Structure formats: structure tokens, C-alpha cells
Automatic annotation (TrEMBL):
The keyword Oxidoreductase is assigned to this record: yes
UniProt xrefs under InterPro entries: KR_dom (IPR057326), NAD(P)-bd_dom_sf (IPR036291), SDR_fam (IPR002347)
Domain of life: Bacteria
Organism: Actinoplanes auranticolor
Protein name, as recorded: Short-chain dehydrogenase
Length: 285
């Protein structure tokens, strides 16, 4: 466990449903202080109840739609004001977003929700992660990275279809993990990424084929297993690693290319901090 002898504070994005909720309940049951982030108020309220029943304490919960960066900024600021340390950030919020129109911030919705929102939140919580070092960031990736064609210099560029956008966003999750390990490793932060397998959740309900597959998919609890391992097991403290079923997992070359990871980091900073980029936390040790 991280922070032996203390209750860990673990922030779970996408904690209102599926893999994130299953992980949050298990962490609360194990004695951790869980902080939930979700988008839908009703699902977030129900998730608070599930986690309270699992751990015996009412978790703090923050609402933010990652398709609106100002909402991420508000939730991140509110969370940082209350929680002095974050032992683990579970960077899990994601969806197969429609590719029809750009977000209010001007980016592809899927790439913003699945990558830029979490990227911004990680920066907003960087001081809290450093205060808890050794700390961890666990990102929920996907084997869909294999078909991603992310333009790392313009990550928010509109994608041609929702599945193309999803692949690009999951490629970004892995590249984020690799560059976060390089930049934030010296702070005692261990970033990892994992593929949960094909899981029965609310994910992909817009896709008839994916919904059909749910007949044979695994449960959210099974999907959360590697996440829980990465969040706490000393053997899983492998900076920049990519895993599935508690084992190292292969990814395509362009999802783990260090040069692409650096470019993506810089262009993502510019995307979320805009003209204020120079005043943003650059994250360099
Ligand atoms: N299911 C699979 O087979 C599978 C496979 C590989 C990877 N994944 C990844 O696993 C992660 C969790 O997905 P899941 O399967 O557990 O699906 P899920 O049941 O749909 O849960 C997704 C979570 O992300 C949150 N979320 C979605 N859009 C958001 C937005 N715009 N702003 C803020 N939060 C948002 C949801 O919040 P609300 O409930 O409030 O909307 C929910 O808590 C995702 O990153 C997904 O890409 C899933």
C-alpha cells in the first residue's frame, strides 16, 4: 500500500459508473478515502451511496463535464482546496463520444474528454500528488490505441469518426503516461496505464455491435482488478508502464514513442492553458 500506516486519499475520475465505480467501492472497502468525480448528477449521487455502503464513510464528490475545461478547472480547484494530499489519481473518465461537433473549448470531444480533461486535472493536482509522494497516477487506456492516428502537435483536431477519435484519445493516454513518468518521476510520482479488457458498463452503448458484445464481456469489478493492483502494489510501481491482467501489455510503437510523448505534452499544455501557457505549471523538475 502507498503511505503505509495512513489512509490514502484516492481521486477517481469517472467514479460514477462502470470500472471507476467498481474501483472506488473496492478502495473504500479497503479503508482508503475515496474522492469521486463524475458528470451526471444522478449517477454521481448513486455512486456516493455505493461507496458509502462499501467503506462506511460518505466520500467527497465533485461534478465536472470534461467536455468543458472550465468545469475541470473549478472541480480541480475545489478538490485541491479541501484535500491537502492525493496519494493516487485514477485518471479513468472516458467515453466513446460523438464526433459531430467540437467542444466549447474548440477540440474534438472524445480527445478532450478522454485526454485533455484528465491532463488538466493532473496538473491542477500536481502539488497535492507531490505532497503525498510516493504517489501514483493510474490511467485507464485501451487496446483501441492500436488504430489511433493522433496528431501530437494538434491533439484536439477534429477526428473523422467516433472510433477514430476514441483510438486517438487512448493513444494520448499512453503517451501522457510515458511523458508524465519522465517529467514527474523525479517528484516521486509513478504514472502507469492499463487496458481493462472488454467490460460490461455504460461504455459504447451508442454502438450496436459493442452493446451486443456485452453478452460476453467481463464485469466492471474484473475490469478494475489491474487498476487496484497499479494503485497500491509495490510490485506495480513501474513508471510509464502499460499493463493488462496485472502483466506488462504490448502497444503499438507510435503510442509509446518518447518524442511523440514530448510533443503531445507541449501541445496539450498549450491547449489547456492557451495564452497563459507560460504561467502554467510546466511540470519540469
Ligand atoms: N468498457 C470497456 O470495454 C472499456 C475497454 C477499454 C477501456 N475502457 C475505458 O474505461 C474507462 C471507464 O469506462 P467504463 O467502461 O467504466 O464506462 P462507463 O460505465 O460509461 O463509465 C465512464 C465514466 O466516465 C465518466 N465520463 C464520461 N464522459 C464524461 C465527461 N464528459 N466528463 C466527465 N466524466 C465523464 C462517466 O461519468 P457519468 O456517469 O457521470 O456520465 C463515468 O463515470 C474509460 O476511459 C473507457 O475508455 C473501457
Amino acid at each position: 500500500m502507498v503511505g503505509v500506516g495512513e489512509r490514502r486519499t484516492i481521486v477517481v475520475t469517472g467514479g460514477s459508473s462502470g470500472i471507476g465505480l467498481a474501483a472506488a467501492a473496492a478502495l473504500a472497502r479497503g479503508g482508503d478515502e475515496v474522492v469521486l468525480l463524475g458528470r451526471d448528477p444522478g449517477r454521481l449521487r448513486r455512486a456516493v451511496e455505493v461507496v458509502r455502503e462499501a467503506g462506511g464513510r460518505t466520500p467527497a464528490a465533485y461534478r465536472a463535464d470534461f467536455a468543458v475545461l472550465d468545469e475541470v478547472r473549478s472541480a480541480g480547484a475545489a478538490l485541491a482546496a479541501v484535500h491537502e494530499r492525493v496519494d493516487v489519481l485514477v485518471n479513468n473518465a472516458g467515453q466513446l463520444a460523438p464526433a459531430r461537433r467540437l467542444t466549447v473549448d474548440g477540440f474534438d470531444p472524445c480527445v478532450q474528454i478522454n485526454h485533455l480533461g484528465g491532463f488538466l486535472l493532473a496538473h491542477l493536482l500536481l502539488d497535492r500528488l507531490r505532497a503525498a509522494a510516493p504517489a501514483r497516477i493510474v490511467t485507464t487506456g485501451s487496446a483501441a490505441e492500436a488504430w489511433g492516428t493522433l496528431d501530437v502537435r494538434r491533439p484536439g483536431r477534429r477526428q473523422v469518426s467516433r472510433w477514430a477519435a476514441y483510438g486517438a484519445s487512448k493513444q494520448a493516454n499512453l503517451l501522457f503516461t510515458i511523458e508524465a513518468a519522465r517529467r514527474w518521476g523525479p517528484y516521486g510520482i509513478v504514472p502507469t496505464c492499463f487496458f481493462p479488457g472488454l467490460i460490461r458498463s455504460r461504455f459504447g452503448r451508442q454502438s450496436p455491435l459493442f452493446s451486443l458484445g456485452k453478452l460476453v464481456f467481463r464485469s466492471p469489478e474484473q475490469g478494475a482488478d489491474t487498476l487496484l493492483w497499479l494503485a497500491g502494489d509495490p510490485a506495480a510501481a513501474m513508471p510509464g508502464g502499460y499493463f493488462a491482467w496485472r502483466r506488462p501489455f504490448g502497444a503499438t510503437g507510435r503510442s509509446v514513442d518518447p518524442a511523440r510523448a514530448r510533443h503531445l505534452w507541449d501541445s496539450s499544455l498549450a491547449a489547456v492553458y492557451g495564452a497563459e501557457g507560460e504561467r502554467s505549471p510546466r511540470g519540469e523538475p
